[in-house]
Amino acid sequence: MTENKFIKIPGKKGDKRIPSRVLEEIIHQHVKEGHTKLEIEGYGQHGIGGRLWKIENSRIDIRVTGQSGQRSGSLGNVNTHIEIMGPASDDIGWLNAGANIIVHGNASNGVMNGAAQGKVFIGGSIGARGMTMTKRNPRFEPPELWVLGTAGDYFGEFMAGGIAVICGHDADYSIETLGHRPLVGMVGGKVFVRGESQDFSQKDAKISLISDEQWNWLLVNLEEFLKKINKKNLLKSFSQRSQWQLIEAKSPYEKSLGSEKPAMSWFREHVWDKELGRGGLIGDLVETLKGTIPIITRGDLRRYVPVWEQGKYMAPCQAACPTGIPVQKRWNMVRLDNIDEAISMGLEYTPFPATVCGYLCPSPCMASCTRHTSYMAPIDVRLLGKVGENIKLPKSGQKSKKKIAVIGAGPAGISAAWHLTLQGHTPTIFDSGDTVGGKISSIIPDSRIPQETLEAELKRVKELIPDIKLNQTINSKSFLQIKTDYDFTIVAAGAKKPRSLPIPGIEKAIFANDFLEKSKKDKINPGKNIVIIGAGNVGCDIATEAYRLGARNIKMIDVQRPAAFGKEREDAEAIGATFRWPCFTEKITEKGVELQDGEVLKADTVIISIGDIPDLDFLDDNIKKKNGFIAVGKYFQSSDEKVFAIGDVAGLGLITDAIGAGKKAAQNIDAIIQGKEFDQEEILPQIDKQRINLEYYNPLNIADNIADCGSDCASCGQCRDCGICVAICPEGAIERVETDQEDFEYRVDSELCIGCGFCKGACPCGIWDLIPNTPM
Amino acid sequence: MSSDRTLAPNSLSLNDLPWQIKYSNDRCTLCGQCTASCPVKAIELSVFQKRIIKTSVNQNQDHSNQYDTFYGIKQKTRVENACIGCAICTFVCPNDAITPVKNPGLDRLKFHINQQGVPRRRGGRRNASFSVLDSIKFTRISMLTDPALDAGRHEFEMRTLLGRILSPRENIKRLREKGWIPPVRQIYPMIIGGMSFGALSPTMWEGLQMGVAYLNEELSMPVRISTGEGGCPPRLLRSRFLKYVILQIASGYFGWDEIIHAIPHMKEDPCAIEIKYGQGAKPGDGGLLMWHKVNKLIAAIRGVPQGVSLPSPPTHQTQYSIEESVAKMILSMSMAWGFRVPVYPKISASSTSLAVLNNLTRNDYASALAIDGEDGGTGAAYSVSLDHMGHPIASCIRDNYLNLTKIGKQNEIPIFAGGGIGKNGNLAANAAALIMLGASGVQVGKYVMQAAAGCVGTEEDRCNVCNVGICPKGITSQDPRLYKRLDPEDVAQRIVDLFVSFDMELKKIVAPLGRSTSLPIGMSDALGIDDFNAAKRLSIKYVV
Question: Domain residues of chain A, as ranges?
């Protein structure tokens, strides 16, 4: 059923406006009845002309006279043609899905908002937010909006598709053709605009060239548009290509390029540095270079640098040795197959390498061995000592004319004379006794040291030091004479006077040294029961000697926990000597020792072994004393600068203490003779044991021969030359370099090194350290 | 560690350390990069021994014990070498073989960082992650009630005023009488808070300033930055960029003679003068730059000899009362620039803050009040001050703002809030919350370091070694070997990113409130919180 005439539908019934809902029903009723041309006289009813979905493939024409109301043609369908004969209200063509709408006048806000298809032709201008949120569905042609005049503010907001053509006719040039801030958030579509628009969102849209194809499309469709709104006469004036601009949405890629704000590097160079000066903020104060440095750096830029500290620290063994023997160096020689040299090196430090290092010394070197930190057996230095009895004499130094008197032929005196001879001076030893060696020869029991060893070493001493005067009377007169005759005098007379007890019956007792001297020559019979007052190591020696001579009930008493230790104590315990403490002696009687609590300890012989004190009666008053000993300075010089005091006269100690003192005193005298300050090599600090890596050694291994000892020695602070650092360095920065005197060193190429400290971490001997680099 | 070691009170095992190195021998290439880069030398190459036992049940076969060695990375357990969790080792490791892991609750180290009787000092901020600011919600969303705005398309003017705004009556009176009108700056509401040249490295400081200059000159965002107390490089003082700078003066007055020397040569007035009386991170403490950080450069800028420690007294020494402080400091600083530059004090948040504010309201030379809360950061402070001293910023700002409304001056003297803003990453939300509680703007420091330079410090006590100058990122170090890791240009770019994104987030918060041309300062009807007591204390809505 087709008609050529429009059916009129009034928007009013009488005086009464028909509500939007009712008018909608009336229109739909007409359409249902087959009418396709409707003329509606609107009275501001909402949404006239949209939603005529029943007309599937046939065209329907709606003409609106009167006031069209909001959202005319909204939700419009294909085949719907609406012509509004006057101005249109808000949201004309809202959510348009295909309707063609012509407006013969202005349209207010929201034209085509949300439209996806259809075309809207406005024969005037439009209000705010026209063509906003429009989109294009690929299944259909894009929506189009044609505006004769101008667009209001926020035109094309969030526009996602479609084509808008704004002709700018009769535009008021004080406003923009596209109004304030058009195309914000635009992501798709095109806008042809006749006139200027600079205020559009540059972030979202861009001006494009109009192609010939586009221009032809525009011309053809402009004619159609103008025809529809009855303004064909304007075609000519609208046909000047130069007046038109095409604004298109930027692609996501173009948006990702960001705004055209300058790069920071440009800003820095052209704005920042230009205003502040070359080098920027602080270019006038420090040298500033552009760019950064890496986290891992080499050369001067390293925060930490490795250092090869060969010889910078003393090994714990050497540091513990009162004689100062560099034990670790000797083991190093062993490793280098210089066993002979390693053995004979002992004589550079002590006249008694076998006697003392091998037998008599309690070996503080071994006690301090780093291997203890991992509960590994210390390296047995005694092995190296014991083989030292037959080494040949070292060469004496250049002869000097200085004469030095040494009073006392004990270990201290011999050590001093030994080193003075090696330095080229001429010492003379005076001793009141008839043997050389002092307590070593006269008191220490044979069980502690093989006689042949002692004799061999004493023989060597006598060979090196020809001038030993025995059986000399040393009193104040002879002492003064000696002092006058010699350039320097070293007092090494020992502590021979036994310390006594102020108790009744003391005369019935025998003193330790007297007993040992006699026992050594088998000239005493101690009986079965003996009591030793004083349970130190000397007391233990007495106990073992007394046992050898027949004693069986041996009691060692002390006022405090017995000081005896080591081999001596073990030996004493082995022969059944008993230790008792605290015991306070009241008196000594025929029966034995009576204690303060009344108990009587039966004794055939009572031996007092509570230590010795030096006999200093022969010294003149120039030589100051302290607590019964000669007061000495750091290097054993007494208050009389020509007189030195070493060994037990200066303070009780081990044999090795006495030997060390002799060496130091000799070195000091030598320095004084040469007019130099004595520079003690001991100032080297001891190495931190934590620096040594013991993981390289088999903890179960107990080295029992010299070669094994050499390889198991951790060589603290003494480079083993193993090259592990070269192997471990991740940058290949370490190199072994031969130096002049057949020596070597490990060097770091700072241009390769990154300061990781791996060399330090891996070094078995603690040679490498990692220290902060010099501040920049 | 040796077998014969004994136990000392501070003997710690790996289990006792706050950060434990998880290390895989299988993946490790032994390249040395981790040990080379560890800032505290917490790790080292170590030799390990492995026992290989070969046994047999057959009578005639020997058993054997063999020992083998291998190498690997070992963590040190000494207090001074305790891992700080910075993970620079993880960063450099080519094989993902190493990473520090936070010890969940067994950390005993904290009982021992007081060797020689020196309590722990560190950088960073209060080691507590909770922030009441994070709980504040913006509950007033106008969709249909007000014209809701779109943060993306609307033109927003995110600006605030720094300066004393006279009452209309007073203003007109002075205009008529040609009297003095206090200077007022229209600035961006987020200020980069005071971090001194010295606390920060030269590269970091330059990057911040460069970024601020870019924001102003290329993006027209009037962002301002406070110098902190450590002077200002002479070139900056004599440049046009000075107008973006708030010069801080504190009790040590470091660098101020150099600033005075530069005044005749200044092309621009500084934005403002901030008089620092207190810092939220360490209330009652002055700054301290240790001598080893005072190198040639720092010495030149602070106007002191090299290699001396630079302690600042806890307070300005010649001021014994609020009245005196206001009279002396504010007046003399105003005078220095001919009363053209706003001058305001910065105090640490405190139960006494109100007294300061009340005093300022009576003196129209006082341009503003900056309050720094307990969660503020610092380059160096005693841990006890950081963790236990100070006042939360939210209630302090609220009290002060409500006090201003009580006396009718809420539009006349701006309050700026600082301390913990964005400490959990919620920069814009925290800032907006404070603004709606009454702040005219916020000061942000730590977040800037984290976002602009990659500071790895956390409230889980990670890193926090700013005080000793070994910052692995080169942010707080004066050692060129560290600070040259940082490119000022990159920092500047991140500052721009940070402000532009903050700006968008702030708009996202205020747009639904219908605000676009003025900040919602004190618009507390927009706020809600699901904690009844907090709601009551802050006079905002309780929402559940």
Answer: 105-256, 261-291, 316-387+685-772, 403-490+616-676, 497-613
